Batch of 2 targets.
Target 1
Amino acid sequence: MFNFLIRRLVVAALVAATVMTLAFILTRLSGDLATSIAGPNATQADIEAIRLAYGLDRPVLSQFFDWVGRALTGDLGESYFFKARVSTLIAERMPVTLTLGLTGLVIALVVSLPLGILAAVRENTGLDRVVQMVALFGQAMPSFWLGLILMITLGLNLGWLPISGTGSWQHFVMPGIVLAFSAIPALTRLTRAGMIQAMGSDYIRTARAKGLSRASILLKHALRNAAIPVVAIAAVQLGFMLGGSIVIEQVFALHGVGFLAWESIGKNDFPVVQAVVLVLAVIYVALTMVADLMNAVLDPRLRGP
Amino acid sequence: MSALLDVEGLEVGFGSRTSAVRGISLTVERGETHCLVGESGCGKSVTALAVMNLLARGSHRTARRMTFQGEDLLKLNDRGMARLRGNAMAMIFQEPMTSLNPAYTVGSQMTEVLRRHKGASQRAATDRAADLLARVGITAPGLRLGQFPHQLSGGLRQRVMIAMALMCDPQLLIADEPTTALDVTVQAQILRLLAELQRDLGLGVLLITHDLGIVARVATRVSVMYAGEVVESAATAQLFADPRHPYTKGLLRCVPVPGKQRQDEPLGSIPGTVPRIGPGFAGCAFRERCDFADETCAHIIPRHAASPGHDYLCRLTA
Ligand SMILES: Nc1ncnc2c1ncn2[C@@H]1O[C@H](COP(=O)(O)OP(=O)(O)OP(=O)(O)O)[C@@H](O)[C@H]1O
Ligand code: SF4
Ligand SMILES: [Mg+2]
């Protein structure tokens, strides 16, 4: 278990290093930063002043290591546009994004687990096929389009939910549904496959031979084993959702980290862009570690002899 | 009083092409051990699973009669079967390695049966489980109760399965090769335990085994299966002394003197293989391998009684 944790941590560090490098390179690829920060009306002198002020005149490698060194101590730099510390900006907006991601995940699980179990129990019936069709359909749907459809129906026509902003929990329902849709197909299919496999196993035959109730057989004995891969994928999906919030937060005007990233890209506020990419990547890596830990909790075989 | 388990004309098919069990009749009386023997694939496990109604999906089970303690098993729904299973009728499966749930401890899996059927408290159920583990020869039962199946050897898992089947003091125990993973001393201990329960509680056992030594030692009655049929059934002494069916004779050719035969010796080997049997198969399924076969063996074969309680399925009458 200890070795396993160490290995996971090394992998996590490598992933973080790679992401930092990529984030850095990407922000430098978009042309001369000093020019774009200065804006279209700036004189050559303005541009040179900015270049000096932000240290953009130094060699790229030294800029990179400088940034990495600071990031490792938790200093993500200062935003050019907001005139505030990047870490403060991100910390302010993170709750919105996390709430959105978790709402999406909860909705996804609440829909996919029962659907998957139902499809498995009714394997190869009409119901099973309907569930699989729905999953396929969900997969094919672009999220911004689904977002707009929901806004028009639930928001404008029916007036059930607010269409933008972050004022109350209701504001998170629609974007949560949209995010959930991206995870529901995979989670449903995985639950279904896991349940079918479990239900055909010898230990379920034993559970039936013990005269246990149907609920106990399905939920205690089968789902517990079927859930192991589902939990892992759910954590990864949450990571995707946090990344996907860049689009969804735009559509629903939620002022989270995704929104911040979007604004900053437009303004060439590269310390913010770099930092958001880094933070999301670190969260993603942390989530996969959480998934591994939860797997070990659910599957005693992973805990060693 | 009717038999504990009474099965008549049991048929099991898988899909439309395989007839795994073809019209089997057998009874298990209180306190007796009825052994089912026959080579691999003859339908022993399918017969056992059919009685418990635990056959895999895609199987088809019919019978003229199937009663347990006088209750018609054919009329019971899932709920009714669940009331009996693990409680009055218990089964030990042939696959000890995979029959325990990997996600739960031995203790949790053993106690839940007693809690469900007898409403026992967790504490009482744990005590009972520890007691039974000790009786199947497991040292440090307390430790084992807290362990997960993957931490146990095959022999231990098999003994856990046996102990678990006995949790509710069943009336009928169906045991499918229950001692294959065990060494001789432990095996003897288990057989002694079963004999005790038979004497004290009137437990009836349907025992599937390849080991003719065990048959000779514990069986009250033996049914020999071949290709989905019982080809001969008799009281144990009768069968060993006077086998009538050519297949039974083949099995017993290298019959061991009880207690003296080698461990895990296979049933007497007869050249040839079992034919694939589908619906509409007629005649004796053994005729390809039988030294006495003639053209009449392709027609309907009568069942003869050699003596009361001893019958066999063959055209030969002597
Ligand atoms: N789930 C299934 N689907 C299709 N055929 C099956 C299934 N289970 C068993 N059979 C077939 O039924 C026949 C009887 O199998 P069974 O398991 O009862 O044999 P057995 O006598 O228990 O053999 P062994 O001594 O090897 O355990 C075999 O031909 C087998 O292929
Ligand atoms: S019926 Fe014929 S083939 Fe079958 S066992 Fe008897 S003699 Fe042999
Ligand atoms: Mg078998």
Target 2
Amino acid sequence: MDWQGQKHSEFLMQILLVVFAVVAFAVGYAIESFQMMILIYASGVLLTALITVPNWPFFNRHPLKWLDPSEADR
Amino acid sequence: MHSFGYRANAVVTFAVTILAVMCSLASLSDNFNVPTPTADVKVLNINWFQKQPNGNDEVSLTLNASADLSSMFTWNTKQVFVFVAAEYETPQNALNQVSLWDGIIPSKEHAKFWIHTTNKYRFIDQGSNLRGKDFNLTLHWHVMPKTGKMFADKIVMTGYHLPEEYR
């Protein structure tokens, strides 16, 4: 991942987890099912991990321009 | 967020922290519930009433207890532990409490119940004070949560009386 990608990944991770937590709590409270809250949240955590942890291409859209090896030697 | 492992750790840690917050909120939400339980306990019969060889009084009763505890169940309730205790005063102790019966209510559907039984646990005094004794029967309950704070309360029923003589 490039630097921009890392920033996006962290932001996405935080937003997704908080949103899933809020939705899970609201739904669980409304239908009076603790189990449903846990189920929604757990699937949210897995989805978030799937989106933000692996090094997907869309996290690499601002790649760093490294110097050529021959230039760096000088 | 420099590596796979770093990001994986960040997701897991943040997810667990948020889970802790959700569980605290779930426990706090129990405070919005105001239970309105009802209970009635009748002593149908004093089966026998004797002084044991060690000098302590013991009585065996048949109880008929009915209660509706469904209003104390919330989405965050795991089970309700309920017990019936006999309470009375003696010269040695200001308060004696003897548990006569207990049970676990696993869900709201089982919360409206009726039992007819002899006392599950022995009603033995520390001494010989039970003849002619007035006592209360108290229904205690503990609402055990899935997560967070446990609530406990009771209903006191008065007016019960033990025989003047052994039988």
